[in-house]
Specification:
This is Cytochrome P450. It is a single chain. With 501 residues, the protein is of the alpha+beta class. It has a single domain, classed as Orthogonal Bundle (Cytochrome p450), CATH 1.10.630. Helix content is 49%, strand content 9%. It contains 17 helices and twelve strands. The strands form four sheets. The protein has a five-stranded mixed sheet with strand order 1-2-3-8-5, with helices on one face. Helix 5 (161-177) runs antiparallel to helix 11 (288-319) and helix 9 packs across helix 11 (288-319). It is globular and about 60 Å long. Mean pLDDT is 85; it is low at 1-24 and 363-369. Bound molecules: protoporphyrin IX containing FE (HEM).
């Protein structure tokens, strides 16, 4: 298997205020570094401890504890997969995923947005139902974004692909997130939302290093990044107000005419409409400010995770060029059957070799927090973060035979041999925790799958790429907190393909 990523979505590093509680309170083995056990080492190298604990305990079906890199007050618990079944459908009120995310990101504590039922519902129902109608506009947005964002490179040119992938994905998702009124390539929304996401990912760590937890709220008045987030949100709600009012009026008008459901796409299929629907379903009014918060939090959850996945696939393609001819041939074969070369969801689903390659390139974790007692008596104190080590699970030879060998067709064979409906890139399954599991499993995964495929198809059709001689030794993937992320600072050489085939 390839080394894989979870791009830092809302996770940021924490500052230490207290010594950890003694691990013995948890009555679990406590894994720590030999020698230096400083907070900074936990922020950068925790993944190594997960690996050590996996070998010593998880592989034998036993849990262990270690210092939580984001909370020095309480050790976190790392659990073997056998415990997953018991908690994956537990209500948010008992084991909170959103509180865990918020504990790490501190966004709501500094006046920012947080995940909620409506965001999850809008993605789970609205986005997923409409996705079949969105492929064509997404393909158009993809072509336009490459033309605008990807620099001309008729000769081999060194580029930093991560920043470019982010821009292409952000353009594609803007056309889905805010729809036709605001989502254009040069729109104010585009820069506003990108600026918000950048501030939301950088400001919290600065606040954490500067303030003790109980006065985080002060940063609202004193920290430039936090103040900018508020400014962007206020401006976004001004832009969204007339769009939202228009949708509220149109929905009321349809209701007054007794039209509830119709076949095919509705006039508007975008984040504004799905969030309005989700709030209405829950009997809530949606204000422009809440709409701006919800859209921003969805963007924060999607942009870096999806772009990071795209970068990991690119790095794996660079390291396994032998797999590319099969993938290119498959794209070509399916495309010749498409009228006007316009992709559909069905046709993207036929790209099984590409899909298998992408799945080989992915990782995940499932964090939750709360008091809990498992059936076998294992007790987890309130507020403790529980982690299932998805990355190491992906490399467990019991789960995936010969895990260190990148096998582009591993998941394709599984589909063919056991179940054609499982083991897709976006499948949630116990053999890979990329998308989480159960109640909170990522509702944006099908969108991520289709946008990534469109982006990869465009890349493969229009560019050649290779590592430069001088970057051959630069690591492709880096440890970061509990994760391994693709190196965003690694440049790659690109050249436009003379004949697109
Ligand atoms: C490769 C890209 C992505 C990865 C790896 C990823 C991964 C995840 C993971 C691991 C979770 C938590 C699942 C759990 O704890 O069980 C999650 C939740 C979520 N993701 Fe994604 N995600 C990606 C893309 C997206 C996109 C494109 C969107 C939106 C369009 C999105 C929206 C969300 C939302 C709203 C949640 C919270 C769901 C809930 O709490 O019920 N994600 N994602």
């Amino acid at each position: 298997m390839s080394i894989v990523l979870y791009a830092v979505v809302l996770a940021v590093s924490a500052i230490v205020f207290f010594f950890p509680r003694r691990a013995s309170q948890l009555n679990l083995p406590y894994v720590k570094f030999d020698g230096n056990n400083s907070a900074s080492r936990y922020r950068t190298e925790s993944e190594r401890l997960l690996r050590k604990g996996y070998a010593e305990y998880i592989s034998k079906g036993l849990p262990f504890s270690m210092r939580d890199p984001n909370d020095a007050n309480r050790p976190m618990v790392v659990l073997p997969i056998k415990y997953l079944e018991e908690i994956k459908w537990i209500p948010e009120s008992r084991i909170s995923f959103w509180k865990h995310i918020d504990k790490q990101s501190i966004l709501t504590q500094i006046g920012g947005p947080g995940l909620n039922e409506e965001c999850a519902l809008a993605a789970r129902q609205g986005l997923n139902r409409a996705l079949v109608y969105l492929i064509e506009p997404l393909q158009e947005a993809c072509t336009a974004a490459y033309a605008k964002e990807w620099p001309t490179c008729s000769e081999w040119t060194s580029l930093l692909p991560y920043a470019l992938i982010i821009k292409v994905f952000a353009s594609m998702s803007a056309c889905v997130i805010v729809g036709p009124e605001l989502g254009g390539l040069e729109s104010e929304w585009q820069s506003l939302s990108m600026n918000f996401v950048a501030a939301a990912l950088s400001a919290p760590s600065k606040v954490k290093t500067k303030y003790p937890r109980w006065i985080y709220w002060l940063s609202h008045y004193t920290n430039d990044g936090v103040k900018a987030m508020t400014r962007y949100r206020i401006r976004a709600s001004e832009l969204l107000a007339p769009v939202l009012q228009n949708r509220i009026d149109a929905t009321a008008e349809l209701k007054s005419r007794g039209i509830r459901k119709r076949k095919g796409p509705r006039k508007y299929e975008d984040g504004v409409q799905w969030l309005l629907d989700a709030h209405t379903t829950h009997g809530k009014d949606l204000t422009p400010d809440q709409l701006a918060r919800d859209l921003f939090v969805i963007m924060t959850a999607s942009i870096h995770s999806t772009s990071g996945a795209g970068l990991a696939v690119l790095f794996d393609m660079l390291d396994h060029p032998d797999a590319l001819s099969d993938i290119r041939r498959e794209i070509q074969e399916v495309k010749t059957r498409l009228p006007g070369g316009v992709w559909t969801r069905k046709a993207l689903g036929e790209l099984q070799v590409l899909d298998s390659f992408m799945r080989e390139s992915a990782l995940q974790r499932i964090p939750v927090s709360s008091p809990w007692k498992f059936k076998d008596g294992l007790e987890i104190p309130a507020g403790t973060t529980m982690v299932f080590p998805g990355y190491h699970h992906n490399f467990d030879p019991i789960v995936h035979p010969d895990p260190d060998t990148f096998d582009a067709k591993r998941h394709l064979r599984k589909r063919q041999e056991s179940n054609t409906h499982k083991f897709h890139f976006a499948s949630v399954s116990d053999d890979m925790l990329n998308w989480g599991s159960g109640r909170h499993s990522c509702p944006g995964r099908f969108f991520a799958q289709e946008t990534l495929k469109l982006m990869i198809i465009h890349l493969l059709e229009h560019y050649e790429f290779k590592h430069a001689e001088e970057t051959k030794e630069v690591p492709r993937f880096l440890p970061n907190n509990l994760f391994i992320i693709p190196n965003p600072a690694l440049p790659v050489l690109f050249r436009e393909r003379k004949v697109s085939s």
